[in-house]
Specification:
By secondary structure, the protein is an all-alpha fold. The protein has eight helices and no strands. About 65% of the residues lie in helices and about 0% in strands. The longest helix is centred in the first third of the chain and has 35 residues.
């Protein structure tokens, strides 16, 4: 059960790039740290752990294959949910999201989208991007410039591919435990 409900959070969610730091190494660190934040803070806390806790309370065997499937599924759905939230935090319609478009840019959230964008920008554009991101006084024109950088780097199709990169490829095919038609919980080990 401890392995399934891993709560270790090894990363500082605030990532900065020091002047003179190797840009490739800084980009890799920012991307790895952003993914770690998504995985540990969002995916596990919001989806994976509640899903597993509910299944365990319903009698799921924590050492069985269904627990592993649920853990992988919950984490991947949680990552997809957070990536979608990140897109909405940058491009979202305020009448739907309830917060101003670009608010995450003003806050300087170091999301996967920001990490991938920084990595792909030319050095001069990256410097301007870094100077703007996290400035709470950004105006509509500056927000639009940052949004344009993200859009140029990704385009909507690539944003969709970013979602799919973190989804079902690593979830194994359902085994006999998931193919059962009954709603009976798996028996616990040693019962």
């Amino acid at each position: 059960t401890d392995r399934l409900l891993d709560t270790e959070f090894p990363v500082d969610p605030v990532v900065s790039v020091a002047p003179g730091q190797d840009p490739a190494a800084a980009a890799q660190r920012m991307r790895d740290d952003a993914l770690s934040v998504v995985r540990h803070k969002s995916a596990r806390y919001s989806v994976r752990h509640p899903l597993l806790i509910g299944a365990l309370l319903a009698g799921l065997d924590p050492s069985g294959p269904t627990a592993e499937y649920l853990a992988a599924f919950g984490e991947d759905v949680g990552i997809a949910f957070q990536l979608r939230d990140d897109v909405l935090g940058i491009f979202g319609d305020p009448s739907i999201t309830g917060k101003p478009s670009g608010d995450d840019l003003r806050e300087g959230k170091r999301t996967l989208l920001i990490a991938y964008t920084r990595e792909r920008l030319a050095p001069g554009a990256r410097q301007v991007f870094d100077e703007l991101i996290g400035d709470p006084s950004l105006d509509a024109g500056q927000i639009a410039a940052l949004q344009q950088s993200l859009f140029v780097v990704f385009g909507l199709l690539v944003l969709a591919l970013l979602f799919s990169r973190h989804l079902p490829n690593r979830i194994p095919e359902p085994g006999p435990a998931l193919e059962r038609q009954s709603a009976e919980p798996e028996p616990k080990s040693g019962s």
